[in-house]
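Quick one - inputs below.
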Amino acid sequence: GQNIDQPTEMTATEGAIVQINCTYQTSGFNGLFWYQQHAGEAPTFLSYNVLDGLEEKGRFSSFLSRSKGYSYLLLKELQMKDSASYLCAVIDSNYQLIWGAGTKLIIKP
Amino acid sequence: DAEITQSPRHKITETGRQVTLACHQTWNHNNMFWYRQDLGHGLRLIHYSYGVQDTNKGEVSDGYSVSRSNTEDLPLTLESAASSQTSVYFCASNQGQGDSDTQYFGPGTRLTVL
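Output:
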């Protein structure tokens, strides 16, 4: 079966750095998304990786290793507004999007 | 600005009633999706459409139906609502090949079935 694993919850301190991991086992791979979802709101796009390596976008970076079936989202200089759930999603060989259950990130002052 | 809207935002209904949730997008996207989101399960695909008159079943389609008569709308119908269908429902759309393009989400509909 197809599976995406993320930690259920993480806690970090304002101003610090946090890394949220995502491992996947899917039938094929055509890209990986990270979405942010604040409580009670819709998911919003953060990043997309299809090739190995690091994609940097401001305070957020996303890394992909296709051979390891692994990605992480790195958040730097954490702000209170970064408290949200972070969803990892993989495009499989049929171009279907497989979603992880999400990681709830709690930021403490 | 282009957007994707859902209505109603909140709905309470009774077991056995038919319920329709509306989704309207002005992106002119070919692809539209319906998801439900429950604690511990993440987003689960209910139905999707890759164009007018095209509909497909997703992972959790039992008890739900959709129709696509135009580009902008993909209404989701619960034929006979059950308590297990209490959830938050998100509509999304994109333009690319299948799911490979970024999906834009509506604000969600919180449905409670009593």
